[in-house]
Every structure is written in C-alpha cells, then in structure tokens.
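Task: sequence design from structure.
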C-alpha cells in the first residue's frame, strides 16, 4: 500500500475541477461506508491547481488519504466527538467558510474586471506619479532644535551620510539616509513639498515638520518618471480591482442586511 506524501496530506483542500479516472460513485468502502468519488475529485483538482501532475501515483495517494480520513472520522464518531458542542460549532464554521468561498468565487466569475477597467486604473496611477522621480536622503529627529543642529553640522561641512546616523528612521539611517527613487506621492505632503523645491545636491536649510517628527532633506538626483509597462503591472491591477469589487459588494450586503 502506498504511503500518502505528508506535504500533500497537509495541503489538500477543496477544488473545482474533474477527476476523470474515478467514474464510479465511490472510490472505496471503509467498514461498509462508501467514500464518494466527489471527495477525490476535489482533492485532485486542488493538487492540479498547485501544479501537481495528474498521475496514477497521485490518484493512489489521494485514495489512501481519503481512506485514512474515513477511518479517523469513524473513530471520532464512535467516541461521540461529533456530538460535542464545540466540535459541532467548528464544523458549522467550516461549512460556512466553504459556502462563503463558493459564493465569492461565483461573484468574481460573474463580475470580472474588464480590460477597460484595468487601463483606466493604470492611467490614473500614472497621472498620480507625475512626470519626475526624486532620489532624496533625510534625517528624522524628534525636535526642531535637533533638526537645526543637524543643519548646522551640514553647513559646517559634515557629510550627510554622517549626520544620518542620528536619524530615528531605522530603514534609512544605515544607508546614509537614502530613500531610493520615488515619486512625490510616496511621501507625506510636507516632505514631498519641501523635496520638490530643492535643487539637485541641496538640502533643506530649515526643519521640515511632519507627523513623524522633523526632517532634514537632501535631494541627490532627479529624473523623468519611468512608469512600468501596462502588461507588467496588469496582474497586480486586476487583483487590486477585483478585491475592491468584492469589498464593495460585501459592504453593500452588510448595509442592506437587517440586523437585530
């Protein structure tokens, strides 16, 4: 008897495709209880969706796993575990989760994101990017006086990379305050407004206050914005818009629901 691979035993979930090799109504009987072929269909479908080859070995593994589950299920029932309130509650929640997933998949199927929707979102994002990208550095400190002290050091000839070691921003302080190439919309408004006014190689001579503290900003470089190609970001846009559709639908249903 073949052993069922542990990775498969962990990952098998419900699926939606067919299991053509199992034409009978059941694939096996365990202590007189038939295991429906539809259970094997769902397991095989999930494995195919994850890239597993549709092989005789996989079908044997699925059959063996279902037999093991049936054996354990029968044992649990014989001990009356299926009658316990907490077990019944968990089974109810599992059933509800499967039903919800089926409903949302049906909604997505019947409310697809169109190419026109994707193109419109792409153009909207491009317009928000502007026509330039900036490569700034910054030092973030807690008080205005600390920021003024940083500026004084810069005016005295200290390198920006050196004063950046005093920054409260752990993500950039070890890189000399460098933030990489970004469009202004990536930053909070006070930061971006001060940054775009700087000339290349210059730094702010007065502290810039934001919700995070006080910044001293240096602009290393500027270049024309290079938006990614539509085809490159299309999958992410599709996922984003589809999620927005689902969230709006869920909100609409919740708003209309009569809750007492």
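Answer:
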């Amino acid at each position: 008897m073949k052993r069922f691979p542990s990775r498969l035993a962990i990952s098998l979930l419900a699926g939606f495709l067919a299991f053509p090799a199992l034409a009978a109504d059941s694939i096996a009987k365990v202590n007189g209880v038939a295991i429906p072929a539809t259970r094997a269909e769902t397991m095989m479908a999930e494995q195919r969706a994850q890239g597993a080859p549709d092989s005789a070995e996989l079908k044997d593994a699925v059959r063996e796993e279902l037999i093991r589950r049936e054996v354990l299920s029968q044992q649990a029932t014989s001990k009356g575990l299926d009658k316990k309130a907490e077990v019944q509650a968990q089974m109810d929640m599992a059933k509800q989760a499967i039903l919800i997933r089926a409903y949302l998949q049906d909604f997505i199927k019947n409310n697809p994101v169109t190419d026109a929707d994707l193109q419109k979102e792409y153009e909207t994002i491009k317009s928000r990017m502007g026509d330039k990208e900036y490569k700034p550095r910054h030092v973030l400190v807690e008080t205005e006086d600390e920021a003024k002290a940083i500026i004084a050091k810069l005016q005295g000839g200290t390198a920006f990379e050196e004063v950046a070691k005093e920054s409260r921003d752990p993500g950039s302080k070890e890189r000399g305050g460098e933030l990489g190439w970004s469009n202004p919309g990536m930053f909070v408004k006070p930061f971006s407004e001060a940054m775009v006014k700087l000339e290349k190689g210059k730094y702010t001579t007065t502290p810039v206050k934001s919700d995070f503290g006080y910044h001293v900003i240096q602009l290393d470089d500027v270049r024309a914005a290079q938006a990614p190609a539509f085809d490159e970001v299309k999958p992410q846009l599709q996922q984003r818009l589809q999620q927005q559709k689902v969230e709006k639908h869920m909100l609409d249903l919740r708003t209309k629901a009569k809750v007492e």
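The two ends are 55 Å apart (CA to CA).
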